[in-house]
Design goal:
This protein is 11% helix and 42% strand. It is mainly β. Strand 85 and strand 86 form a beta hairpin.
């Protein structure tokens, strides 16, 4: 079958007229406007001629206007005036152009012979109708004929409407392709093309494979599309427009491209000033040699059906031109891939990506990326494997693949497929074929029973409709998943399509009858060339050629069969004749022989049969191929093997081969490919490195799968061995008069096997002309340094080196530089060599080297290491170590992650620093994924080991252990064990001689290595851990301890941190084992690890050592407790006490014994907490043996008993009982000292609690009271009096027993008349009389509470002293004034009642300094002394007021006013004088 589908397989029956091309619409309009043969207008075009009317109806117009396509049944019938059918008319739809008739043309046409022939052909009974003498028999015959013709015309009309080429979907085609142009600069150029295709293709223009954007380049490009003509106009061309232009047309059926080149020329020397100045350097791809590199490649890939997979590569093209794009193409198995719903391609400018949107096994194969430039192309290929999706039913087979349609006809389509590689473990019973009409989702199973042959003719199709197909495999476990659906294919005869695509004759005014036009009334002849094209046990396919006669009416066929040996022919298709010259017969008896023949038929009758076929026996004619042979596997890579085999000797129509592999001993076979391969060699990927595999192969064709080939020999999966690449970097390390020491670098590729040695060649160079090569060594040397001897002094030489491995000797290196053989006499050493980089991490690495061969005048005594970034200039080399190192290795730290570095080493001796070594290869400072470090381990036996693991080993990889970076060859101190990807270095007898740096290198890798530093401290720690592991100890959470339980029981216990269920304990006392009994109760809770032993009591015999001995497997431990002497006696005493306590607590008892509490109010409360009380329980308080009685009944339950010593003034002798018993008495004083006792008593017993508050006990109590008093004191303050300055503080409560000390400048004050202290109420004060500046300083009062005391301080100095002193002076002056001012001390009454005539004498005391002045007033008016009123002031102290004879005028208010400089004071009295008679009246 060709790569592209035939035209008839690309079209569907169901199409929408709205998608027709413009050309098709034009033709339809002409059909509809034709005056005579229009098919489909809403009104019939009619004409009358000789009583004949022709009518044409097809419904095309209605179909086009309706959204749902409706196909009317057209009738092209000839009728007379009475509308009687007399014949039919054939519309001319097959011409290349459409036409109609005018009235004048109609008359001319009628006279032509062609017109007459048409009348004779289609209206054979016309004359009979016109003569009206037709018989009944003829009328019936013609009626039947008309019905037959009507049916045939309808079928032909429907067929041609469906087969209109312009209405069927097909891929784009370039009718006219764009052509190349060469133009002058500043000219415009237009590229145009004509494209056909349906649906209308989408056209895109490209410049050098970059889509042209007319909007982004406004004014530069102009794109037009009109009537299938597409153009690109480039305005004012310049040099940049010189390029290859591509126009791409794409629709749903495919994509097609055409190319044209545009070359822009310039007149010599002409430069347009208005244009930008010309760019220097290359401006286009012309004349440039491109270098293409494909990097970041995709590797061999594995996917599963239904997944999405992307393949991509980065493409680097040098030089990089902005406007240039390469051509990117993808291939699968050397077949070019096009974009489709399964394949999406993307080019980003530097990366090509192919995305497989829905993997199927058809996608398996070798994928190739091809990048094409004008300088050539580069390719890269890798294989993609696609596994079956998980079966929906366990052990069901895999899905078939590659479903195709080999043949398509009106009656059937042959579907083919390829068998799957996976049968699910059970043989495949057969296959079911499903079909689905395009446009629906309804799948119909085509065969009732499974077919084993991978080819099946599907019948029962509707002619002209398109179908999709899929196939499912079945075994006894169930059905597989369906295959990928096929491409759509239409059910129609290829010959119909060929005729439809033929060229129709032009209109000549006549109807030209070709072989497409059937001839009426002619019985067809015999079919020709009948043959059996395909025979299986399920069906037989026949094919033949139509009869040779031309112009036959539409022919159909009857197929007949005959069992061999008989003459009985049986018609196979009795009901419906077949239309195409092919037919599939089913339901034939397997094993019987049949002959077949075919008859043609039409409305005129059935023709003669064809010649019969030869007898054919029903059965598969295509045999299953024979098994392949001689399967040979060959090593390829560490994950793949090349399998080759001898092809099947008997294999017809071979589809390919399936390869299966199995790990030796597993007996599990896995497919290596899921898509058959036709070659006899295949690379099986995805294998496990290091495993051994066997392989087998089987062939496949449509008949089925062959038997498996014999199994191959086992092959180990490891990289194939090849000879190594050449060494490089040849340098001279030392030179003497007749020899030179060379060094070189290891090949970058060692061929998959260790290098066994090197061979050195040399040749003499004379005047720049090299001579013949000579072997320097016959036996291979293992080191990368060698002394070449027997050279000639002062001669020049070149050298080359070859590496060898077990595969052979590789090609030689490039010749070295030319070296002069002369003796070195320099004083400094030569260059170090053989630099190696190990343990590369993101911020560090280790550099190793070998010392120079040439030492110089003195031995080498150190090395310097230099470093720089890879791209940095030479002048930025910097030193790693400032001080020379004597070692030949160094760890370089503080590297920048992700940066590339290079290194070199210089040696020094006493003479100086020598020449630099060769620079290392660039090293990327990056920790590779999966990198692991050496881990130290101590096992249960105490063995110390270093462990290193590496996951990506190659088959030839080895672990190389070193100490101080020198390979360990002597295993007396270290034993090396390697298993798989892990290696272990075991210390035999660890000691100080093992201190050092241990490293491990994995060969044949990308430098996997790690190191571990064993320091003296680390060795000591490991030895301790080793001892603990060698002699394990059961860890204890707590050591053996003793505690007392209720009733005085003694509990010995400990808790183990971790112990298993197998652990056991031995209880030892004084080296004798104890056992469970009345005296000893042992318990061991293995869940918590608590071990205990309980004794009822201790006796003198129990004094000694108790030991618990633990054992859990290998681990042991013990803990002991020594109970002797005072320790034992105290424990025994406490045990007895606890026992008595338990007895005591059976009756009323004290939970908390009698104690005291001092409240913040400085009240002392004696209290105790009691328990186990009842109503009958009594409580009695005693002091010094005398009961403190109360009239209240002691009715309380459990609670607290209290006795409060209250403040003075509280009522004495009162008691209050509830839950608390309180005794109130006077303020605490020394009288309260004594022994207090509380007694609880009832019928269960009694308990007593005593508190001694005498001597020290009382002193402690008072100290606590003093502490509360001290804490209640206020800060020390300063005040002034008329006598001096006073310091004072207040306390909440004061007790006479409180002791305080006043301090001045931290020294106790000695009190005197001038400095005194005292207490007033709750105020404590210090008085400083007549203070002076000497009294300034820090003062403090200290409260003594028997503990630390409390001190309050104040600073009497500075402003505080000045303010206090000033206030003192003021108060003092005020006091003096108050004492010296004039005063009336007393002696005067308030009222004096006196009888007239009597004498009045009043005297009062006067004080004041100086002596005050005395003034007497009567009724506020001053009076003076006279004979009647005598006023005297004597001795400065006494003032007298005397009236010798009182009369009534003397009554009034009298005042004495005394006055001096300090003040004035007055005394008032009233004198009332009465007559004697008034006095007598009052007496009565």
């Amino acid at each position: 079958m060709s790569g592209s589908l035939p035209f008839y397989q690309k079209h569907h029956r169901h199409y929408d007229h709205g998608y027709r091309s413009r050309e098709t619409e034009s033709k339809l309009s002409q059909y509809q406007t034709s005056s005579r043969y229009t098919a489909g207008s809403s009104t019939s075009a009619t004409r009358t001629s000789r009583g004949l009317k022709v009518s044409s109806h097809s419904g095309l117009e209605a179909s086009r206007l309706s959204p749902v396509l409706k196909r009317a049944k057209p009738t092209y019938l000839a009728v007379d005036k009475e509308n009687q059918i007399i014949g039919y008319v054939v519309p001319i739809f097959r011409g290349s152009q459409e036409f109609g008739f005018s009235n004048t043309e109609e008359a001319r046409v009628r006279d032509t012979s062609a017109y007459m022939a048409r009348r004779d052909l289609f209206t054979s009974g016309l004359e009979m109708e016109r003569s009206e003498q037709i018989s009944r028999r003829e009328a019936m015959r013609e009626s039947a004929e008309r019905i037959s013709l009507n049916k045939r015309i309808h079928e032909h009309g429907e067929h041609f409407k469906r087969m209109n080429e312009d209405s069927l979907m097909h891929a784009p085609e370039f009718v006219i392709k764009p052509r190349s142009h060469t133009v002058w600069e500043k000219q415009c150029v237009r590229l145009h093309c004509t494209v056909s295709g349906w649906p209308d293709p989408r056209v895109v223009w490209y410049k050098n494979n970059v889509a042209i954007d007319p909007i982004g380049n406004a004014g530069k490009y102009k794109l037009e599309s009109r009537y299938s003509v597409h153009s690109l106009e480039i305005n004012r061309c310049d040099f940049d427009d010189t390029a290859q232009y591509r126009v791409s047309a794409m629709n749903s059926k495919g994509e097609l491209s055409a190319y044209a080149s545009v070359v822009v020329k310039r007149f010599k020397g002409e430069i347009d000033e208005s244009l930008p100045s010309p760019r220097h350097g290359p401006v286009s791809e012309y004349g440039i040699n491109f270098q293409t590199h494909i990097v970041d490649k995709f590797g061999v890939s594995f996917g599963r059906e239904g997944e999405i997979m992307s393949l991509g590569c980065t493409v680097i093209i040098y030089p990089a031109l902005h406007h240039y794009q390469p051509e990117i193409q993808w291939y699968r198995d050397d077949v070019l891939l096009s974009p489709s719903k399964w394949n999406h391609m993307h080019w980003s400018g530097d990366r090509a990506t192919l995305t497989l949107t829905h993997l199927n096994k058809e996608d398996e194969g070798l994928y190739t990326l091809r990048v094409t430039t004008k300088s050539g192309y580069e390719t890269y290929s890798a294989y993609v494997f696609v596994k079956d999706a998980d079966a929906e039913v366990e052990r069901a087979p895999g899905a078939p693949l590659d479903v195709r349609c080999l043949d398509a006809n009106k009656d059937y389509i042959i579907v083919t497929w390829k068998q799957p590689a996976v049968d699910g473990g059970d043989s495949i019973l057969g296959y079911f074929v499903d079909r689905c009409e395009v446009g629906t989702n309804h799948w119909i199973q085509c065969n009732d029973t499974p077919v084993k042959f991978a080819r099946f003719p599907v019948t029962g199709l509707v002619e002209g409709r398109s179908y999709l197909f899929r196939v499912r495999a079945i075994n006894k476990s169930g059905m597989s998943r369906p295959s990928r659906i096929s491409e759509p294919v239409a059910a129609m005869d290829p010959s119909d399509r060929a005729r439809m695509r033929g060229t129709s004759a032009p209109w000549t005014g006549q109807i030209i009858v070709t072989e497409e036009e059937p001839a009426e009334g002619v019985v067809p002849g015999r079919p020709l060339e009948l043959q059996v094209t395909e025979a299986t046990k399920n069906y037989v396919v026949l094919s033949w050629s139509p009869p040779g006669e031309k112009g036959l009416e539409g022919v159909m066929y009857y197929v007949e069969k005959c069992v061999s040996g008989t003459d009985s022919w049986q018609r196979v298709n009795t009901e419906i004749p077949v239309k195409s010259p092919r037919f599939a017969l089913f339901d034939l008896a397997e094993g019987k022989s049949y002959s077949f023949r075919v008859r043609c038929c039409n409305s005129a009758g059935v023709g003669e049969p064809s010649d019969p076929t030869e007898a054919i026996t029903v059965g598969d004619k295509l045999d299953i191929p024979s098994a392949p042979s001689k399967v040979v596997p060959t090593r390829n890579t560490d994950t793949s093997v090349v399998v080759s085999w001898v092809a099947s000797s008997e294999a017809k129509e071979l589809v390919g081969y399936y390869i299966e592999g199995s790990i030796v001993g597993s007996n599990v076979w896995e497919p290596c490919n899921n898509k058959p391969v036709k070659a006899t060699r295949f690379i099986c990927h995805g294998l496990i490195t290091g495993e051994k595999y066997v392989f087998r192969v089987r062939a496949v064709n449509a008949a089925g799968l062959s038997q498996f080939s014999p199994e191959s020999e086992a092959v180990e999966v490891k990289a194939a061995i090849a000879s190594p690449a050449p060494p490089y970097g040849i340098t001279v390390l030392e030179c003497v008069c007749d020899s030179m020491v060379l060094a070189w670098k290891q090949p970058s590729f060692i061929g998959g096997a260790d290098i066994t040695g090197y061979f050195v060649d040399y040749r003499e160079v004379i005047d720049g002309v090299p001579g013949k090569w000579h072997e320097a060594n016959i036996k291979a040397i293992s080191e990368r340094a060698y002394r070449v001897s027997d050279l000639k002094e002062n001669k020049k030489y070149q050298f080359q080196v070859r590496a060898a491995n077990m595969a052979g000797v590789g090609i030689p290196s490039l010749p070295s530089n030319t070296f002069l053989c002369e003796e070195w006499t320099i004083a400094v050493p030569g260059p170090p060599h053989d630099l190696q980089v190990r343990e590369v991490r993101s911020n560090s690495l280790v550099l190793l080297w070998k010392p120079p061969v040439y030492q110089g005048r003195d031995p080498v005594n150190g090395f310097y290491v230099d470093i720089k970034e890879e791209d940095a200039p030479e002048e930025v080399w910097r030193g790693v170590n400032n001080k020379a190192t004597e070692k030949t290795y160094i760890k370089i730290k503080n590297l920048k992650e992700g940066e590339r570095f290079v290194f070199r080493v210089r040696a020094q001796n006493k003479a100086g620093v020598g020449e630099c070594s060769d620079v290392t290869e660039p090293v990327l400072a990056l920790t590779k994924p999966g990198t692991k470090e050496i881990e130290v381990d101590v096992n249960d036996d105490g063995i110390i080991s270093l462990n290193f693991e590496y996951g990506d080993l190659t088959p030839d990889s080895k672990f190389v252990w070193s100490k101080n970076y020198e390979e360990i060859t002597d295993q007396s101190r270290l034993t090396i064990e390697t298993k798989g990807n892990k290696s272990k270095a075991i210390f035999n007898t660890p000691g100080e001689e093992d201190i050092g740096i241990y490293s491990c290198l994995v060969t044949h890798t990308d430098g996997a290595s790690s190191s571990y530093t064993l320091s003296e401290e680390e060795l000591k720690r490991l030895l301790e851990v080793s001892h603990d592991h060698k002699f394990p100890i059961i860890p204890l959470k707590s050591e053996l301890a003793v505690e007392l339980l209720e009733k005085g029981k003694v509990r010995f216990w400990l808790q183990a941190d971790k112990i298993s269920a197998n652990g056991k304990v031995d209880y030892i006392f004084n080296e004798k084992a104890l056992s469970q009994g009345e005296k000893y109760k042992m318990n061991f809770d293995k869940n918590t690890g608590v071990i205990e032993m309980i004794m009822e009591s201790l006796t003198p015999a129990d004094e000694g050592t108790f030991t618990f001995q633990l054992q859990d497997g290998k681990a042991t431990n013990q803990s002991s407790l020594v109970l002797i002497g005072d320790v034992f006696k105290e424990l025994q005493k406490e045990s007895e006490f606890q026992k008595k306590e338990w007895v005591r607590k059976q009756g009323p008892h004290f939970i908390e014994y009698l104690g005291y509490e001092v409240t913040p109010e400085c009240c002392v409360i004696l209290k105790c907490k009691v328990g186990n009380m009842k109503k009958e329980t009594s409580a009695h308080w005693y002091k010094d043996g005398r009961e403190i009685k109360s009239d209240e009944h002691l009715g309380f339950t459990e609670g607290v008993l209290k006795l409060e010593i209250a403040q003075r003034g509280s009522p004495a002798g009162t008691a209050d009982y509830a839950d608390d018993l309180i005794w109130r008495r006077l303020k605490i004083s020394k009288k309260d000292a004594g022994v207090y006792e509380v007694v609880l008593k009832d019928d269960r017993g009694k308990d007593t609690s005593t508190l001694n508050l005498t001597d020290q006990g009382f002193k402690d109590l008072m100290n606590e009271v003093f502490s509360f008093i001290a804490n209640s004191s206020t800060p020390l303050k300063i005040t002034s009096t008329d006598q001096g300055i006073r310091l004072y503080t207040f306390v909440s409560y004061y007790n006479d027993l409180l002791q305080v000390t006043w301090h001045y400048k931290d020294s106790a004050i000695a009190f005197s008349d001038r400095i005194k202290s005292g207490v007033v109420g709750e105020q404590l004060w210090l008085q400083i009389t007549e203070p002076t500046e000497k009294d300034m300083g820090k003062y403090a009062i200290e409260f003594n509470d028997g503990k630390g005391g409390l001190r309050r301080t104040v600073e009497l100095s500075g402003q505080a002293f000045d303010d206090a002193f000033a206030e003192f002076q003021r108060l003092k002056a005020a006091a003096v004034a108050e004492r010296s001012r004039a005063r009336v001390a007393g002696g005067l009454p308030d009222v004096v009642t006196i009888q007239e005539g009597k004498a009045l004498n009043l005297t009062c005391n006067i004080s004041g300094d100086p002596v005050p002045e005395v003034t007497w007033l009567k009724n506020d008016k001053e009076i003076t002394s006279d004979d009647h009123c005598i006023l005297k002031f004597s001795s400065g102290k006494f003032a007298s007021f005397t009236i010798t004879g009182v009369n009534m005028s003397d009554s009034g208010k009298y005042s004495i006013l005394v006055k001096n400089k300090y003040g004035t004071e007055s005394g008032d009295f009233t004198v009332s004088v009465f007559l004697p008679e008034e006095a007598g009246g009052k007496k009565k």
